[in-house]
Amino acid sequence: MSLLEVSGLRKHFGGLxxxxxxDLAMAEGEMLGLIGPNGAGKTxxxxxxxxxxxxxxxxxxxxxxxxxxxKPHEICRLGLARTFQIVRPFPQLSVLDNVxxxxxxxxxxxxxxxxxxxxxxxxxxLGPRARDLAGGLTLADRKRLELARALGTEPSLLLLxxxxxxxxxxxxxxxxxxxxxxxAGGVSVLLIEHNMRAVMSLSHRIVVLSFGEKIxxxxxxxxxxxxxxxxxYLGEEYVHPAQA
Amino acid sequence: MDxTLxxxxxxxxxxxxxxxxxxxxxxxxxxxxxRVVNFAHGDMMVWGMYLAWLLSVRAGxxxxxxFVGCAAVLxxxxxxIQRGLVERIVDAPHEMQILLMxxxxxxxxxxxxxxxxxxxxxxxxxxxxxxxxIGPLFVDVARLLTFGLAMILTAALWLxxxxxxxxxxxxxxxxxxxxxxxxxxxxxxxxxxxxxxxAACVGAAGAxxxxxxxxxxxxxxxxxxxxxxxxxxxxxGSLPGAFAGGILVSxxxxxxxxxxxxxxxxxxxxxxxxxxxxxRPAGLFGRTAA
Amino acid sequence: xxLFLLLAVAALAVLPWIVGSYLVTVMIFIFFYAYLxxxxxxxxxxxxxxxxxxxAFVGIGGYASALLSMRLGVSPWIGMWIGGVLAAxxxxxxxxxxxxxxxxxxxxxxxxxxxxxxxxxIALNVDAVGGALGLYITFTGNPRQFQxxxxxxxxxxxxxxxxxxxxxxxxxxxxxxxxxxxxxxQDESACEALGVDTLxxxxxxxxxxxxxxxxxxTFYAFYLFSLQPNAVFGIPLxxxxxxxxxVGGAGTVMGPILGSFIxxxxxxxxxxxxxxxxxxxxxxxxxxxxxxxxxxxxxxxAYPALRRLARRGA
Lengths: 244, 290, 314
What we know:
The structure holds three protein chains of three kinds.
Chain A: E1 2-13, E2 16-27, E3 31-35, H1 42-50, E4 57-62, E5 65-66, H2 72-78, E6 80-82, H3 95-103, H4 110-123, H5 139-152, E7 157-161, H6 169-184, E8 188-192, H7 196-202, E9 205-210, E10 213-218, H8 220-225, H9 227-234
Parallel strand pairs in A: 3-8, 3-9, 6-7, 7-8
Antiparallel strand pairs in A: 1-2, 1-4, 4-5, 9-10
Helix pairs in contact in A: 3-4, 3-5, 4-5
Chain B: H1 3-34, H2 41-59, H3 63-84, H4 94-116, E1 131-134, E2 137-140, H5 141-163, H6 165-175, H7 177-182, H8 187-209, H9 219-234, H10 239-259, H11 265-279
Antiparallel strand pairs in B: 1-2
Helix pairs in contact in B: 1-5, 1-6, 1-8, 1-9, 1-10, 2-3, 2-4, 2-8, 2-9, 3-8, 5-6, 5-8, 6-8, 9-10, 9-11, 10-11
Chain C: H1 2-14, H2 21-46, H3 55-72, H4 76-100, H5 105-125, E1 135-136, H6 151-174, H7 176-186, H8 188-193, H9 198-224, E2 226-227, H10 229-233, H11 235-248, H12 255-276, H13 284-297, H14 302-313
Antiparallel strand pairs in C: 1-2
Helix pairs in contact in C: 2-6, 2-9, 2-11, 2-12, 3-4, 3-5, 3-9, 4-9, 6-7, 6-9, 7-9, 11-12
């Protein structure tokens, strides 16, 4: 059974058609990469999936349920969690307390929520920083925190919005390992990313968006070789490692 | 319902709207340029009123002449408040700004209380004695003059914003604060000027109103609330909105006084406010994008 | 810390038997305004929704129990809960209109002021509830009617109110509701993305806050024996309610109490000073200066600042 089924998704802002009839499907356990040039509509898709925007048209089914009209917190409770492209930590709370807000969704009692939060914090590698205020973290740690919070809601599908952006090569490697481990642990991931190495190595399949439309989909290798994708986004220089 | 009464109410409401407009224009200018809500607006107006009173009683200057002086003093006061206080919290969360200006309001209101006492005061102008008949309706000369001068001042402000460099800088800063900085606008100077001009408007409005209505230090907060009503109904940051809103609210209150009762007229403007807040928070003339 | 608090409460319990009646009255106002401030703290401090119209709830609660007592002979001990519920109903309306329609910051403040002013104007003009003269409660000194001969009885009632509200806020702070409030205050959208029903949480905070404030209205009515629309619905009372938590530390448990202990004596001293000069009410100048000072130098309030000092010293 498909975990996520999107059909005919459409959204416009005034005169701009941001998403134009998108069809998308994800199976359980899959890691799907969503790539495309800036302004292609990728984050808009995330906002539509997570309930922050209302689609003009189209259908979104998650674990068999229609998501139309649901509020973001309801969608999160159903098991679809997202991160924000520009991270939004609670600046005056500690790392642990930040994640605690997320775990409280599944564990209303404070002690249980704290324990679950501690586990998540350890899992993403922020253990040493658990008591630090979120406002004082480095960008790489804030990205981890953003990821940890989404994980804390115990999602079955995780939407990651440019979680590598702004990180250096070492940090990206670490993040790639982390995201891979999360997926291996059973959480499906839909990944928006500009870092081609990361996306191509992590994803099982890739969907390419340009001007709100899907122009290609397939395995990383197929997509990297696709003429339309090269013209719209990748450029001639990009060579998928498997083709080199 | 006697049509003459209604007509009278409409006319007097319309004329008084001139002052409301001037008051609101000052507030919306400050908000439009600096994104600061001036909770001390009404209390500045009260000081405009008392300054006019002082000029009249101590120097024999008619408020219809003296309003210029009141505007000048309030302009200075606005500059001082902006440079000394507001500038420090321009980037602070909104709640802090509100509390700061509330503090300023309390200081201004009670300084007036200490300086002038709690009893209502009024300014005598020889012009406030006359009446003029327009058909079956009559109008105080004072109200006509107040309306006329308020309109002239509003027009002058409009010209200032449209034609002078400083005025254009203000509009630029209101439209796009970051962009204004990028092109080299001295934002501090623009902010200070905006606050000063806004204060001058409300100070002049106070002086112009002083021969018409009795006033006391306690009137301050009520006038602030009325200013906010008008500005929200018209659209925060929109000058045509403040102008139209002032006339609209004044007429609405006047009608409220005629059809309900004089002491219930505020219900009308509050009702309007709540309706706008719910259904068109951008206001009648405001842009729907934030 | 706990030992200190216990000793403080014990000292407060014994105080009325040691000091004179004037000081007991001062303490009553400290406790009562701390109570109102603590009630406000739930929605204004923790949830971060600045309400400048909380006097409306005091007024509704006070008027409700006064009228029930005067017209229907209902004991204020019962009337205070009814007053609280009515106040909570208004709170729910304001909260729903504000939160559902996405009014934040200044717009929400103005909404609360608008409703308070509407209540004031209605109370002023409807003769059935006393009109411009307001309501006067006849003194019977009968405890069943929430009236006491001895000032000290009021002292203990006020003290219990303050302690109960504080205990409640502390309990909430430790639980999910409190954590959610604090997070909502910092970033509502992030909360939504983490499964928090922000509308529901804010509504709960508003309803709880207005309920407690409404209950306080009964104390107001039956301690002062009169309800004047301008006094009990007016902005000055809203300012009194708001300024104590702000100065003491909004969003902290001790904030409203500390604020009240700072402000009430300050108000008394400056009130006497200004009254000597013949300027009644001008003590609010001190409030204004204090607000300005707090915003510029201690935006989080006195309590967090003290806590930082204590930590550095320890």
